[in-house]
Amino acid sequence: MLKSLFPRPWNKTKLSQIDRSKISHFSCNCRTQMEVEVKLRLPNSNSHQKLCNLLSPFHVKTLIQENIFFDTPNSALASNNSALRLRFYNLDSYSILSLKSKPKLSQGISQVEEHEEPIDPSLARSFVSSPRSLLDLTSSSQIMKRVKVEFGVNELVCLGGFKNVRGVYDWKGLNLELDETIYDFGVSYEIECESKEPERDKKLIEGFLEENGIDYEYSAINKFAVFLSGKLPT
Q1: Which residues have CB under 8 Å from 91's CB, separation 6+?
Q2: What is the pLDDT of residues 137-184, one digit of tens each?
């Protein structure tokens, strides 16, 4: 099943194949915000499937995501509580470069400073095999300028990453995201909801899960931290 969802190798596109003219409008529509989300972890695939079935009347779309991360050889970004990520959607239909900083996660509510920029998927794909070339974008990308100036980064390596199947649901005015996250070391399940009133929305989601007998826990660490740890949360 997973092969049909993710048929493309991460390092398919070579740097020499990229049209560098695609860089010129790289940083259009850039976005910086404080992202606040409810994050609840589901214990297993049975809970995930049961919730999928319950939410099916509210299904909007399913997103197939690849998340690939970059840092310096001595982990300068991670040591400053930051993560540089390329995310590919639906087999390279589009892609986003993001820098996430200052994450906080407590009692199922996550806060993180997020800076995002759209990037041409073929160009983005090239950086998996040539991560150092990301630093060539400092004149056109606000994110890469921050990475170089604020964090003093002069070298990057690709850390790898993980894949995610995200079901998106419009439920009671909330945008629910139900994730099946595929790491090299296992699969985890989580429900997320970006929110301006996280305490209120968390109670609403918890009530729905409890009414339907679905076990859950507050997420204790984010997906990037799980990836770095090399093991699933317990």
Answers
A1: 6, 7, 8, 64
A2: 999 999 999 999 999 999 999 999 999 999 999 999 999 999 999 999
Helices (H), 1-79: 2-5, 45-55, 76-79
Angle at 132 between CA 28 and CA 30, to 5 degrees: 15
Residue reference for tokens 């699969």: 187
Token pair in block for residue 90: 């639906």
Closest residue by Cα to residue 190 from 2, 41, 14, 17 = 41
pLDDT confidence of residue 13: 31
Question: Which of 222, 231, 229 is CA-nearest to residue 190?
Answer: 222
DSSP letters, 89-149, are ETTTTEEEEEEEEEEEEETTEEEEEEEEEEE-HHHHHHHHH-GGGGGGGTTT-HHHHHHHH
Name 145's Cβ contacts closer than 8 Å, sequence gap at least 6: 138, 139
CA geometry: angle at 14 spanning 7 and 91, to 5°? 25
Residues of the chain with pLDDT under 50: 1-28
* Sequence-separated contacts (24+) of 65-68 with Cβ below 8 Å: 65/89, 65/163, 65/164, 65/165, 65/166, 66/6, 66/10, 66/161, 66/163, 66/164, 67/161, 67/162, 67/163, 67/164, 67/223, 68/10, 68/128, 68/158, 68/159, 68/160, 68/161
